Fold this sequence. Notes:
This protein has one domain (16-321): Alpha/Beta hydrolase fold, catalytic domain (Rossmann fold). Helices cover 34% and strands 14% of the residues. It is built from 9 helices and 8 strands. The chain has helices at 57-65, 97-114, 126-136, 160-172, 202-214, 225-238, 264-271, 294-307, 311-321, and strands spanning 16-21, 27-33, 42-46, 69-73, 119-124, 144-148, 251-256, 277-282. α2 packs across α3 and α4 packs across α6 (225-238).
Amino acid sequence: MKLFETPGNPVPPGARVGTLRTLDGARLRAAYWVPGTARRGTVAILPGRGEFIEKYFETVGELLKRGFAAAALDWRGQGGSARQLRNARKGHVDDFSFYERDLHAFVEDVLGPSCPQPWFAIGHSMGASVLLSASHAGRSPFERHVLTSPMIDIRGVRHPKAARLLAATLDALGLGGAYAPGGGSKGVDSMPFEDNILTADRQRFARIVETARAAPELVLGWPTVAWVHSAFRLMRRLKDSNFPRRISTPTLVVAAGADRIADTRAIERFCARLRAGRLIVLEGAEHEILMERDIFRDQFWAAFDAFVPGVEAEARRHALTS
């Protein structure tokens, strides 16, 4: 496996990329960077649905400059990981619990052998929700979480109960591998800037599209019925008022005030119940905060720098180096 680069999106120096195998045999792509200057631990990047490692090259570079090692994962069925269905454009998983198997393999085969501790995580959208589920079950290996636009609920679903029932019915009828109603194979590689609901930054969006067109095998279209059904099940768990109270890992949530994908109000309700959480809403920002305009990204990094690695980890680092 390899990483793809374009003139506007070069691979950060020192990348190591390889293949992982999960316990159930899924083949995943992962990459990591451990420069000699990495003295503050490792930040793992857990992307959202349909994303790929290459979208986070800029983020990796910013982490390396801050003295962290960095690692990133392509979830099963997307990016450079093996697809679950013959049609490679379908974003598919039978159940979101399989993503936790991906996370386990990532920790065991990449972070454990190769990346210095302490470990921290940046989880975006779907990746943030998977991380919350793992943390709720006591299976998060990270000292602190930073979540951007977590998928607590989805905006734009006019009749949520009917949509959940339709997804469950179609899945039960054996149509889990079909595109969810209304969707198809078109991905970000064919999307004009004016139609996108990811970012208001024209240059960064163009960079995503350039990478997608250079490596179309990384791109997904619409999710499948099974993916949607599983997402609804996880989001129902996340909206239980007791769910966030069982998450003890210190968590910084950065939400987008103009998000048209994740429901910011649902994020606010979730964060109000976190035991060790803090919420920042970037008013005017679109869904993909790390690909947004600098005015929003600067606010994100200021919050990140104040939160990670935390007082305890910095104290240990100074004790080891003094």
